[in-house]
Amino acid sequence: MRNFSDSHEWLSINTATLRRQEGREVPLLDILDQCAKQGVRAISPWRDQVAAAGLAATSRAVRSHGMALSGYCRGGMFTYTDAPGHLAARSDNRRAVDEAAELNAACLVLVVGGLPGALAGKAAYTDITRARAQVEEGIAELLEYAKGAHMPVAIEPLHPMYAADRACVNTMEQALDICDRLDPGKTGALGVAVDVYHVWWDPKLREQIARAGKSRLLAFHVCDWMTPTTDLLNDRGMPGDGVIDIPLIRGWVEAQGFAGYSEVEIFSQDNWWKRPGAETLATCIERHRSAV
Amino acid sequence: MRNFSDSHEWLSINTATLRRQEGREVPLLDILDQCAKQGVRAISPWRDQVAAAGLAATSRAVRSHGMALSGYCRGGMFTYTDAPGHLAARSDNRRAVDEAAELNAACLVLVVGGLPGALAGKAAYTDITRARAQVEEGIAELLEYAKGAHMPVAIEPLHPMYAADRACVNTMEQALDICDRLDPGKTGALGVAVDVYHVWWDPKLREQIARAGKSRLLAFHVCDWMTPTTDLLNDRGMPGDGVIDIPLIRGWVEAQGFAGYSEVEIFSQDNWWKRPGAETLATCIERHRSAV
After folding, report:
1. Is the peptide bond before B276 cis (omega within 30 degrees of 0)?
2. Span of the secretion signal (chains A, B) (predicted)?
3. Which overall architecture, per CATH, does domain B11-290 show?
4. Which of B168, B14, B177, B214 has its CA nearest to residue B76?
5. Residues A13 and A265 sit within 8 Å (Cβ to Cβ)
6. Cα distance from A59 to chain B (closest Cα, Å)?
7. pLDDT tens for residues A186-213?
8. In whole angstroms, how far apart are CA B205 and each of A94, A156, B134?
9. ipTM of the prediction greater than 0.90, yes or no
10. Nearest residue of B to residue A231 by CA position?
11. Domain boundaries, chain A
12. Do A123 and B227 touch (CB under 8 A)?
């Protein structure tokens, strides 16, 4: 297991972590400048932030800072109720691949979608098996396109509390079953993003990380589970402040040969998003060394 | 699958559902009277409610109403940090068995506990594997005692969002693995409580219900998953108001031979607990017929 205690060369900042600073939305290019200033070598930006900054401008900024992208957030949301919805999801995901390629991302991360409409408050149907079938079909289609762009695709199993509205792929085992069916040769074109927040509770986590192996471990995300957790989405903790044994899980992932970035992704409405960005970033660096 | 549409003879009311009415705490014996008045044949009371009403008085009331207990809520909370904590958990669980027996409950439901201290805000340790070992040891000990009292014990896998603070048994598969180890003969002394709220998202739910079989399906609980869910604990929905396909899951359970009560258990700080009890109860009955 790599020693992170004296350097943050393997730290990546998911830009959602710094999206809000002192309660205000901060433009992506400013976030990149902040990261560069503190010696961060990698980021993982969100599509809406890139769209606001402009893809070309983002690409130039990334290159001029000499930064890597540990991933691109995010493709997915494959579920639909009608043919136009199906087509829209398909084209949107292809654009996400193109953007990820332009930014030279290590992978496109997929949040696969839940019951269509649920995120807006009203599910159009409640058959989660149907949603899962649509997701697998969507990934299969996208995979062909992504292979053409040489862009690896990482399924991110989301915590089961997001099954209804954000992602109906909820365990590593389920994600890897999909990988086995769609990429039986383990080519590296399809894999998983392991986010400790989503999977730490899983009694089968260790065995499923081993099952994934190096070729399917495409990304590693960290934050912490707070007790109490006051919000289902935006109360994620800084590594070390909650109950997840992050070094244990990182050890399992690295034992498989994973040698990429450890990406800090924190949504924190009432804590970190209210603080100055420099403080949040300095804390990410410190905790990367001491708690990851 | 039984037809519930024209009767509520197989409805049980978990008394937490009526614990608060119009924002006020209501005594257990009043709740029993309300249930009896609307023809409810079974309940599942909580220990704190029974303690407040008195065990003997509760027992008399249950008998005089001719009511069954679909279960008794709850034993568990097996995790500990020191020997006194270990002993306290053991004696408390034995008392829970005695109370369940006095009330002639169908089973004692176990919420097994999470990381010790986490429910109060600060986990004493973060090794969930250790917590799981303590839980299994606790169940093993309790099982011997419960057998002596002829009281079946039902492990309730809780939603993974409760893994830190309430229960580190989070899937049917995990609960049934414990059952296999502690009661390989499937004697009926140990099984599971299937609460759709906790397990609806699980891609392996159908196969694990089949694996459980009749001898291990000891209780069936219903409520609904709302979108959005605004609170991790107390925003559970009335059957039919959320996204869970309850009849589908009941069909799977009954296909194994389960023929017990369907127990409505709703914690709802901002909705049902604010309404008059008669309205909540009438809605439970109506939804038992139309949405369960």
Report:
1. no
2. none
3. Alpha-Beta Barrel (3.20)
4. B168
5. no
6. 36
7. 999 999 999 999 999 999 999 999 999 9
8. 33, 21, 25
9. yes
10. B231
11. 11-290
12. yes
